Amino acid sequence: MVKAVVAGAAGGIGQPLSLLLKLSPLVDELALYDVVNTPGVAADLSHISSVAKTTGYLPQRLFGVTTLDIVRAETFVAEISGKSNPQELVVPVIGGHSGETIVPLFSKVTPSVSIPDDKYDALVNRVQFGGDEVVKAKDGAGSATLSMAYAGFRFAEKVLKAIKGEKGLVEPSYVYLPGVPGGKEIAEKTGVDFFSVPIELGPNGAEKATDILGDLSDKEKKLLEAAVTGLKGNIKKGVDFAHNPPQK
C-alpha cells in the first residue's frame, strides 16, 4: 500500500497537488494536513471516483516539535542545581524554537530548584542558543543532530503512547492555538496564533493546551515579551510565504 501525505493541503499549491495525487493510480491512501479547511478539502476530493482513500486532519494533529529546547533546559538546570538525573526534572519551555523566542520558565520547574542570580542570564542564553555550542564543538562539521534525534524520538514516543490510550502525557509543542482546546485564550493573551505551550496528548492529538503564563517572574515576563515580538515577525514571514510562494 502506498500512502501519500500532503502538509499544507489547503493552500494554493496544496489543493491542486492533492487533487493530482487523488487521481494517481499509484496512491492508495491520501492524508491531508493543514491548520485550516483540511476537512473540507478532503470531503471535496473524496467525491472523485478514484482509488485513493482521502482523509483530512485538523490542527490538533499538527505539532511543531520543540522538545530539544526542553531536553537542553532539563540538562543544564540539573547541572546548575546539582541534580544527578535530569529526567527527574520538568522544565517548561514556551514560545518558539529559535533564539530569543525560546522562553525557559525556571520558576515553574518541578521539583522546584533555585537558580543563582549570577547564573540566570547565562543559563537562559545557553538554552536559547545551545545549538551554537554544538556547532562550535564539532568545528563546523555538523550541528545538533544526535540530541535532536533523541528529542524527536521522545516526542514521537509520547504521541504513540497517547494514541494507544495512555493518560497524563504532556509535552510542550508549537501548535496553532485556535485549533486546540484551551488555545484560543492563550492566543488572546500572547497576541500570536502559533506558540509553544504544554500540550496534553491523546488519541486525537492535542487534547488541551495548558496556560502556564500566570505568576511568571519579572525576568520571565521580559523574556516572554521579547519572544512574542520575535514570533510575530517569524509568523508573518511564514504566512506571507504560504500565501505567496516564490515563483521559479
UniProtKB/TrEMBL annotation:
<comment type="similarity">
    <text>Belongs to the LDH/MDH superfamily. MDH type 1 family.</text>
</comment>
<protein>
    <recommendedName>
        <fullName>Malate dehydrogenase</fullName>
        <ecNumber>1.1.1.37</ecNumber>
    </recommendedName>
</protein>
<dbReference type="InterPro" id="IPR001236">
    <property type="entry name" value="Lactate/malate_DH_N"/>
</dbReference>
<dbReference type="GO" id="GO:0030060">
    <property type="term" value="F:L-malate dehydrogenase (NAD+) activity"/>
</dbReference>
<keyword id="KW-0560">Oxidoreductase</keyword>
<dbReference type="InterPro" id="IPR036291">
    <property type="entry name" value="NAD(P)-bd_dom_sf"/>
</dbReference>
<keyword id="KW-0816">Tricarboxylic acid cycle</keyword>
<dbReference type="InterPro" id="IPR015955">
    <property type="entry name" value="Lactate_DH/Glyco_Ohase_4_C"/>
</dbReference>
<dbReference type="InterPro" id="IPR022383">
    <property type="entry name" value="Lactate/malate_DH_C"/>
</dbReference>
<feature type="domain" description="Lactate/malate dehydrogenase N-terminal">
    <location>
        <begin position="3"/>
        <end position="59"/>
    </location>
</feature>
<dbReference type="GO" id="GO:0005829">
    <property type="term" value="C:cytosol"/>
</dbReference>
<dbReference type="InterPro" id="IPR001252">
    <property type="entry name" value="Malate_DH_AS"/>
</dbReference>
<dbReference type="GO" id="GO:0006108">
    <property type="term" value="P:malate metabolic process"/>
</dbReference>
<comment type="subunit">
    <text>Homodimer.</text>
</comment>
<dbReference type="Pfam" id="PF00056">
    <property type="entry name" value="Ldh_1_N"/>
</dbReference>
<dbReference type="Pfam" id="PF02866">
    <property type="entry name" value="Ldh_1_C"/>
</dbReference>
<feature type="domain" description="Lactate/malate dehydrogenase C-terminal">
    <location>
        <begin position="66"/>
        <end position="241"/>
    </location>
</feature>
<dbReference type="GO" id="GO:0006099">
    <property type="term" value="P:tricarboxylic acid cycle"/>
</dbReference>
<keyword id="KW-0520">NAD</keyword>
